[in-house]
Amino acid sequence: MIEGGCWKRLHCHAAIDCPKHFDSNDFQTLIAEVWKKTDWGYNEVRLVADSDQGWLDYMMKIRDKEQYDLSIEWLNYHNPQ
Description:
81 residues; globular; mainly alpha; two-stranded antiparallel ribbon
């Protein structure tokens, strides 16, 4: 989910599943290294393993999104259920 805009710095919240062939710690390290190389990563990354429904609810909140439908990264969206 992309949040922010005119009144708040753009930032991203994500739920990323660790591929089966990766060690969880190695995957988190890889994500942090790659994210910090992006143009808008702001050298900030916070990773939490095993997120719960509360995190998903927080990510999906309407607040802080200028256009909710455009805030979802549909190209990379995958619902495993």
